[in-house]
Amino acid sequence: MSDHEEEKIFNLNSLRISPVTSEVEKTFNFDDYVAEKVNHVNEALDDAVPVKYPPTIHEAMRYSLLAGGKRIRPMLCIAACEAVGGHHSAAMPAACAVEMIHTMSLIHDDLPCMDNDDLRRGKPTNHKVFGQGVAVLAGGALFVLAIEHIATATTGVAPNKVLAAVRELAKAGGAEGLVAGQAVDLSCTGNNQNVELETLEYIHLRKTAALFEASVVLGAIFGGGSHEQVEKLRIFARKIGLLFQVVDDILDVTRSSEELGKTAGKDLAADKTTYPKLLGLEKAMEFAEKLNGEATEQLADFDREKAAPLVALADYIARRQN
Amino acid sequence: MSDHEEEKIFNLNSLRISPVTSEVEKTFNFDDYVAEKVNHVNEALDDAVPVKYPPTIHEAMRYSLLAGGKRIRPMLCIAACEAVGGHHSAAMPAACAVEMIHTMSLIHDDLPCMDNDDLRRGKPTNHKVFGQGVAVLAGGALFVLAIEHIATATTGVAPNKVLAAVRELAKAGGAEGLVAGQAVDLSCTGNNQNVELETLEYIHLRKTAALFEASVVLGAIFGGGSHEQVEKLRIFARKIGLLFQVVDDILDVTRSSEELGKTAGKDLAADKTTYPKLLGLEKAMEFAEKLNGEATEQLADFDREKAAPLVALADYIARRQN
Fold this sequence. Notes:
Cofactor (chains A, B): Mg(2+)
Strand order of the largest sheet of chain A: 1-2
Shape of chain A: globular
Family (chains A, B): Belongs to the FPP/GGPP synthase family.
Number of strands of chain A: 2
Number of helices of chain A: 17
Radius of gyration of chain A: 19 Å
Order of helices and strands of chain A: HHHHHHEEHHHHHHHHHHH
Oligomer: homodimer
Organism (chains A, B): Buddleja alternifolia
Pathway (chains A, B): Isoprenoid biosynthesis
Largest interface: A-B, 49 and 50 residues
Protein name (chains A, B): Geranylgeranyl pyrophosphate synthase
């Protein structure tokens, strides 16, 4: 399926509310699951970036990486690993790597020459604390560390699997992934009269969905998933990635900075095109429901119990309040 | 050998002029060699970064990558591949990757929040043309592309070799390589009363020698070199990397901007610590000769004809005028 065809999946011609997944949820305690796994991830991240010489750069990396984010990408990675029958420990290097890349993109996005943001995860942004030069370097170093971590912390795994993971990460982080999304986003800011739904989706599929995709695909690869499973999870992740961004746009107009832990109303202030702006709040919320339903449909052939964490994560992303 | 022991190699207790290598040079036309190989590299780099959507980011990547640098790292990579008996084509993906990483470091180093340079390779710097936001993104994207290129353009090569190459690149580009060098350099600028020779070497071993090392090691790996050959070439590259920087410092005080294709006298203007400043010009030049001699000694057990390009490159780096 070409990029173009895949993107058409998200067209808005047939908005409808998808069936919710409460039946599966009943047998699975999401809060306990997340609490346990986030703990594991935070410990692994702490171990992965020791304080070394030169201290400033390592402190800057740790400052943003260990700032207590929601760890949604590591969760998706681990849940995908489990959905194909793997043990969560097999996904841990990949879970750390995707969070490092995510943190890199946050540090760079917040720079004055990008989105110019002072607040992130309830704390001053990296460049506010360490200066712009160190922030640029720390962001870059986190991407490099992600690659290094995946290539070194996966001993015992077949090299061709590790290489496949490296390729996925590079695709997600590069000029056709994260960077493409950020570049188009940057070029649209302050020039919004021409931003259409197609462009908005282009941005979000790259800025958000690409790394969701890598997270889930890496989890499935290291969990021993089949090619068919990996490709179904890839589509699941793209839809969930777009869903995440639609919800983010909705929260920006409906919540306060205090509730979000970052500057609220920023999209409106910057006259940024968002789903609520293009579709109206109600239709944007309907679109979110639709994406959630379509994503979980991809999991129909998976073991229901093993896939429960992924289903619950999709629901969490759809219904989160910050 | 630990990092500490390796660094002691470069102590200045026994400055002496090393034997020159003119005997080997006589049988080898360096200019023809470089002209032919640089052509191959430039074509491969052009192919590796096509103009795609979004255009700005790809144009920014191409602007700096195809700006006609000396291609010393790709040359070292190819020459190392040939020194162990490989064909230059086996080193081409690695040669492109190391030049991409080098270009990333130049784009980021030139940013206003780093060295704040307006001129590079005789042209306005990346951020002067495309803006700081795009320059940060283009630099990052070049690193990602380097990894992706090495992981995808090496079909037919054993995956464990490719993974070893990925690890080397990540080590060279990350928080203990390039980024460490730039971070310490940044922290020293404007605070030079305390910069000693040890710190200066720390910076250059990471800012310059680490990527020289990766270039040569990757060339040797893809050329089919033995472990012993790879490790000898690793030491060769570290010494040549430091040599390159000593010569760079010397040229900064002895040449004009026009001759260099970049701003001259910049180190002096910024009150930056350099080898000429710490050692005096003559001792700095002697140190350069010494490093050149020690580097080429590492090649004693290599086939003389096959290693001739490496020897000539070391001499070129020692004697270059820009």
